[in-house]
Design a protein that fits this description.
- This protein is an alpha/beta fold.
- The protein has one domain: Alpha-Beta Barrel (TIM Barrel), CATH 3.20.20.70.
- The protein contains 10 helices and 12 strands.
- The longest helix has 14 residues.
- It is globular.
- It binds S-adenosylmethionine and iron/sulfur cluster.
């Protein structure tokens, strides 16, 4: 197969993050305002058929892994039948989901059945009051129930925790403690400015500070090799069943080996989390382009992929620092 999805720095793109909705049943403070967003009009969202068509030809062009995200993917009606159809795309090697876990538990056995055996679960605290403070909803029990179900079904589980000053610093160590008995990866993410409102002009908890904080309690924590294209620096604590990762998302230290593109719920292709996306592939499909033509448009856009997130941010049309909600991008 010709490597159609290669950027001008020689990076091959084989990973698609597809956001199926911007809507959400939580209001995480780092992601969106408490009152929510001006949700996108439903007719502007990509339909399942459009997404299936897009994914099928992207797999032909070299995409091997698809992550379904949002907003909260399980809030979109009929998500499961869509996932089932996606899982049947020939040549797709890995299908995964990122979820907040509120509605996910009942779907876990079915996910397993269709070959989804790895899920990323967002969980920023184990404390009920702080959960409400962060997510503005009282749903921690449901999220923890999803975690139990995932483990019961031997799913590979990665927990995503966004680290926030004055919010969940005291949760870092209890969350690391989970890895003692549970075979999970817990990944602490530097907070990024994608919150749909307030500017975040500096970072108080960067990857180094997060690591030092953990080292104070677990001095034996050891660096382990990172998988190719990993966005996290990974560590293990001797005697623990799970691992700890730290994602330098604000510091953008992993761009050099980037292998991913994103498609937003509107159908906008983002070749970098920090760019503002020039190609609306849904509009092109609705105008009647063929799969080949759509593939060419995507391939051309990938050729213009920025070298890294700093460069992408500088080149944004409006020259404004990023502040859109992560729910409109997919994380
Ligand atoms: N609703 C699902 C969830 O929360 O898992 C999927 C969508 S959410 C936008 C995807 C990931 O982005 C989550 O793990 C979330 O923690 C992360 N995220 C959202 N806003 C963020 C921010 N401002 N900085 C860092 N990570 C963020
Ligand atoms: Fe919703 Fe996920 Fe954003 Fe939280 S991070 S508000 S769960 S989309």
């Amino acid at each position: 197969m010709i490597d159609m999805l290669q950027d001008s720095y020689g990076r091959s793109i084989n990973y698609l993050r597809l956001a199926v909705t911007d809507r959400c049943n939580l209001r995480c403070t780092y992601c969106m305002p408490k009152e929510g967003l001006d949700w996108l009009p439903r007719k502007e969202l990509m339909t399942y058929n459009e997404m299936l068509r897009l994914c099928s030809f992207l797999v032909k062009l070299g995409i091997e892994k698809i992550r379904i995200t949002g907003g909260e993917p399980f809030i979109r009606k009929d998500l499961f039948p869509f996932l089932k159809e996606l899982s049947q795309i020939k040549g797709l090697k890995e299908l995964t989901v990122t979820t907040n876990g509120v509605l996910t538990a009942p779907f876990v056995p079915k996910l397993k059945q269709i070959g989804i055996d790895s899920v990323n679960l967002s969980l920023d605290t184990l404390d009920n009051d702080r959960f409400i403070q962060i997510a503005h909803r009282d749903e921690l029990d449901k999220v923890l129930n999803t975690l139990d179900m995932l483990l019961l079904h031997n799913m590979e589980v990665k927990i995503n925790t966004v680290v926030m000053e004055n919010m969940n610093i005291r949760d870092i160590i209890p969350l690391v403690h989970l890895t003692k008995t549970l075979p999970i990866g817990i990944r602490f993410i530097e907070q990024m400015p994608f919150n749909g409102g307030n500017r975040l002009n500096s970072l108080t908890w960067n990857y180094k500070r997060i690591l030092e904080h953990i080292q104070q309690v677990f001095p034996s924590i050891t660096k382990i090799p990172d998988a190719p294209h990993s966005t996290s620096f990974n560590y293990h604590i001797p005697g623990h069943k799970g691992d700890v990762g730290i994602i330098a998302a604000y510091s953008r230290l992993f761009c050099g080996s980037c292998n991913r593109i994103r498609i937003t719920p509107l159908g906008v292709l983002k070749t970098c989390l920090y760019d503002n996306g020039k190609l609306n592939i849904k509009d092109a499909l609705r105008k009647g382009v063929s799969d080949e033509e759509a593939g060419m448009l995507i391939s051309d856009a990938i050729l213009k992929k920025a070298k890294n997130g700093w460069e992408a941010e500088k080149k944004r049309d409006n020259q404004e620092p990023v502040h859109e909600s992560m729910a409109t991008i997919g994380g």
